[in-house]
Amino acid sequence: MNLGIKDEEFVRGKVPMTKEEIRILTIAKAQIAHNAVICDVGAGTGSLSIEAARLAPAGHVYAIEKNPEGIGLIAENAKRFGVENITVIDGAAPDALAGLPELDVALIGGSGRKLSDILDIIGERLRLNGRIVANAITVQTVAACLDYFHTHADRYTYEAIQVQISRLERVGPYDMAKALNPIYIITAQRK
After folding, report:
1. What is the pLDDT of residue 51?
2. Selection from 132, 69, 72 nearest residue 97 by Cα
3. Which DSSP category does 102 fall into?
4. What domains sit in the chain, N to C, each tagged with a CATH number?
5. Which residue intervals define the domain Methyltransferase in the entry (predicted)?
6. To bridge 36 with a disulfide, which of 56, 101, 177, 184 should be the other Cys (CB 3.0-4.6 Å)?
7. End-to-end Cα spacing for the chain
8. Angle between the N-to-C axes of helices 68-80 and 47-55, in degrees from 0 to 180, rounded to the nearest 10
């Protein structure tokens, strides 16, 4: 299965979407096995959920999204890419995490200022050696994430990278670099 679906292949609407290069890095950090159980918190259009579901055909993805447009887009994109191992959960985390099974991977794209509560609940369900991969665009979210994993260093090892992607865009006879927003990718593994 190829990793890195082109952005334009997804049905988008006005819902935020993790861009292709960031998806590839996020999925690589997640180390998804073919039978993994994954939750995607703040799934948006479902781009990460779709990539994860394709890598885990014997597993299952729980895509958590509170935006009604996003919920519809996740279902539409799952159908478009022929993945049936996704359950869309309509709601906001941490409440929408209730009832999830044990997890191998948790992807966090949005936390609605409830990151610590979300991480507490995910931590209760995360299997030994399970991974959490959080994408953050604000320094406040990065700080909250790092503070959480530092405070819980007895349960997690963690790392963080900052990624800046620029794509060449044709401008007349020239090619010019057009920068995307920098993203922090924080990865934690349960001890």
Report:
1. 97
2. 132
3. -
4. 20-190 (3.40.50.150)
5. 35-95
6. 56
7. 29
8. 40
Tokens found for residue 181? 């927003």
User: SS3 for 94?
Assistant: coil
Contacts of 143 (CB under 8 A, 6+ apart): none
pLDDT single digits (tens) 62-91: 999 999 999 999 999 999 999 999 999 999
CB count, 10 Å around CB of 92? 19
What tokens were used for 31?
């180390």
138 vs 133: CA distance, rounded Å? 15
Mean pLDDT score across all residues of the chain: 95
C-alpha to C-alpha distance for 23 and 16, rounded to whole angstroms: 13
Tell me if residue 50 falls in helix, strand or coil.
helix
24 confidence band (pLDDT: 50, 70, 90): very high
Q: Where does the chain have alpha helices with state H?
A: 20-30, 47-55, 68-80, 115-125, 139-151
